[in-house]
Structure formats: C-alpha cells, structure tokens
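Quick start: read one record
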Amino acid sequence: MSPAAQPVFRALADPTRREILVMLAEADLTIGEVSENFDMTRAAVKKHLTMLSDGGLITVTPRGREKVNSLAPEAFGPVRDWLSFFDRFWDERLDALKTAIEKDNS
C-alpha cells in the first residue's frame, strides 16, 4: 500500500467519521449541520472533519461565514485498490478449491 494512502485509512478508522461520510454522501453539510447529528461538541466534530479533509475524503468550501463539507468520492480509490487485491486473492483460492473438488468427484 502506498504511503500516500495512509491518511485515507486513518480517517476511515473511526466509526464517527464513517458515519459522517455516509451523511455527506446524501448532502453537503456545514459543521453545524453535522454537529446536530452527534452528542459531542462542535469542536469535536470539527476535529473529525479535519481528519476526513486531511485524508482527502471530503472537501471544505467556504460559503460566507460557513464552511461546507462535501464528499470527495475519488479519494476512495486507494481503498478500492487495496480491497481489490483481496478480491483477486479469494477468487484464486475459490477457483483452486472448485478445481480440487471437481477433480475428487471425477
């Protein structure tokens, strides 16, 4: 895995941040709007949003005095690439198992 992918995985490691990502998949939200959905301080939510931004998973756009947070779906590429290795791994293992079973049955 590329060292550049580490911030993405670090951001995804926390369940609150994953929940925020699901919310942002539905709509762009301000810090206040995100905060309304959690029993934590606005400062704590801001820290989570900063981690997501540092991981490249969200973009933050100033709109007047507010900052609007948006999902950056292209940032999930390193995760998809990393998981695809395991897809190939299991496909190969299952194909080998199928071949072994078919060989035993014949």
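The CA atoms of residues 74 and 80 lie 10 Å apart.
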